[in-house]
Design brief:
Blueprint (H helix, E strand, L loop, with lengths): L5 E3 H23 L8 E2 L3 H16 L4 E4 L4 H28 L8 E2 L17 H17 L5 H27 L1 H9 L9
Parallel strand pairs: 1-3
Antiparallel strand pairs: 2-4
């Protein structure tokens, strides 16, 4: 029994095109970083990065069955799902990295001139970039038809995310004390409150 469900080439190519846009925003965020001094970092976040990367890799691992017609209901639904998930991923990442500005970093760290950002997506959740990455993982699974792999991919990704959010929250609490504790108590980590 194949692990991949049939997909259309359209949903696959749309994912690839939107992935290029996502990685363009990632490179732009990395290019905005400035030289820093007095930064504190938490090396444990590297374990989280590894687990998140493994989760994304699990979602894409394996053969793809591009046998659906792009104009079939399933092909159109798959393409629409990829567009919605990648649109959410790109929009959330772009808005979050722009709100962070020079505070953005791949590894958990705080700068000596770090600011506690509570605007943009950070007004609703503390770690919107990780939600953007989860949308990316789900879009990848839809694009290549790997629904079954999500049973391993999502928990692996969420474990890595938990490690990274704890590392970042510890650093922010050390830097901002009660201001961060107030922010943490009023703002969920990953999933926005609906009401």
């Amino acid at each position: 029994m194949p692990l991949a469900v049939p997909v259309s080439l359209m949903q696959f190519w749309v994912f690839l095109a939107l992935s290029l846009l996502f990685f363009t925003f990632l490179l732009l965020a990395a290019s905005r970083r400035t030289k820093e001094s007095g930064a504190r970092s938490d090396g444990r976040s590297r374990i989280g990065i590894l687990l998140q990367s493994m989760g994304i890799a699990f979602a894409g691992l394996g053969a793809t069955r591009p046998s659906l017609s792009p104009s079939s209901f399933a092909g159109l639904a798959g393409t629409a799902a990829v567009i919605l998930l990648m649109g959410g991923s790109i929009g959330l990442f772009a808005a979050s990295s722009r709100a962070l500005g020079r505070n953005w970093s791949l590894v958990a760290r705080t700068r000596s001139d770090h600011e506690l950002v509570r605007s943009g997506p950070y007004a609703w959740i503390r770690h919107p970039i990780y939600l953007a990455m989860l949308f990316f993982l789900l879009a990848l699974a839809v694009a290549v038809g790997h629904w079954l792999q999500l049973l391993v991919a999502v928990p692996t990704f969420l474990l890595g995310t938990a490690i990274r959010t704890r590392s970042e929250d510890r650093l922010l609490e050390t830097s901002f004390g009660q201001a961060f504790r107030d922010y943490r108590s009023s703002t969920p980590a990953l999933i926005p409150r609906m009401f």
